[in-house]
Write a structure and sequence with these properties.
InterPro entries: Kinase-like_dom_sf. This is Malectin-like domain-containing protein. It comes from Arabidopsis lyrata subsp. lyrata (Lyre-leaved rock-cress). 36% of the residues lie in helices and 5% in strands. Helix 2 runs antiparallel to helix 3. A two-stranded antiparallel sheet has the order 1-2. It is mainly α. A hairpin with a 5-residue loop joins strand 1 and strand 2.
Length: 115
């Protein structure tokens, strides 16, 4: 549920532009289907790859390796910081935007790999 003024202010929400991740938005969990056909949370799917630092399990294979690994890990690190158990340990929306802009700038500045 998005923090929509017409719905009233959700309990505990913040209107600050630098509010913590998920303070203004309550969204459904992203679910994916495993090779076995089970539905699991993207977080639970990605976590083992994140811990093992195996980027291939995290990045969309359609990218065919045409990306900076440093930028990809930065992106993954930002995403994983947004799902920390304790809200006060999550980055602010301003921090998230700034870090993702850095990822994008690094990707736009690099030369694409030839396939």
């Amino acid at each position: 549920m998005i923090n929509d003024p017409s719905l009233g202010k959700p309990k505990g929400s913040s209107t600050s532009s630098s509010s913590r991740a998920s303070s203004q938005f309550q969204v459904e969990r992203a679910i994916i289907k495993t090779e076995e056909g089970d539905n699991i949370s993207v977080i639970h799917y990605v976590w083992p790859f994140f811990e093992a630092r195996e980027l291939d399990g995290v990045v969309d294979p359609l990218l065919r390796g045409d990306f900076s690994e440093d930028s990809a890990w930065k992106f993954v690190d930002v995403a994983m910081s947004c799902v920390r158990d304790k809200g006060s340990n999550r980055p602010t929306m301003n921090q998230i935007v700034a870090e993702l802009k850095q990822c994008l700038a690094a990707e736009l500045a690099r030369e694409p790999q030839s396939q």
